[in-house]
Amino acid sequence: MTCVQTFFAGFSFFCSMNTTPEFAELYGAFTGDGWMSRGNTGITMWITGNPKDEKEYYLGRIKELFKKSLDFDVFPRDFLYWGTYGVMIGQRKIIEKFIAAGAPIGKKARIAKVPDFVLSNSELFIPFARGLFDTDGCINFQKSYNKSSVLWKKTHRHRPRVFFTTVSPELALGLKAGLQRIGFCFRLTIGKPRKRNPVPSYKVELYGKKNTKAFFAILEPRSPKHLAKFEQWLKQGFYALP
Known about the structure:
The protein has ten helices and eight strands. The chain has helices spanning 3-18, 21-33, 55-70, 92-100, 116-119, 125-136, 151-155, 169-181, 209-219, 224-236, and strands at residues 34-39, 42-49, 77-79, 84-89, 137-142, 159-166, 187-191, 201-207. It has 242 residues and is of the alpha+beta class. A hairpin with a 4-residue loop joins strand 3 and strand 4 (84-89). Helices cover 46% and strands 20% of the residues. It has two domains: 3-108, Endonuclease I-creI (Roll), CATH 3.10.28; 133-236, Homing endonucleases (Endonuclease I-creI, Roll).
């Protein structure tokens, strides 16, 4: 088999095996909280989160996504050195599939993007965005600060906001464009560089009760911490900080 034939055989295998909703969601989780590094023994991949409120997500959803999309068992654990919890993968066949999908090796924060296999298939954008939101998105709730607002709105966090924050302009623009294509009017704002973060930050955000309900209905997030906040707000009309 020639080099060209080998390349197209590998590409065809990737298209047939990996471009599934489950892999798109897993790649979204990698984009949010994952990275790869090259060492003396080869390339290692990690996807990790906060052990305080994300263990359930890794033990449930991340394990499920690896099994369904790659037929591969992962065993989440604590990484005490970083103070995180998640998975480490050293198996070459798994890492090669992520690299074939566009995953960079090394620091990726400023160069992360919506991958080409998602951009070329609109059905894969929602699961990709779900994985990214579950790992690196946020939902919070604000009080009203308008002088004419009723007292209840001034004292209760009733106004929801869904947002993604990144230092990659390409990821922010791709995310905003994809969310617009499925009917959301997210706003993109650019934060100024600071001492702790010497590059601009990009925030893709959505406000409002109707918008937030639609976002959760369409994306169907799987993160227990996001769902707990959303369901508390949905049940009582406001969110109380723990």
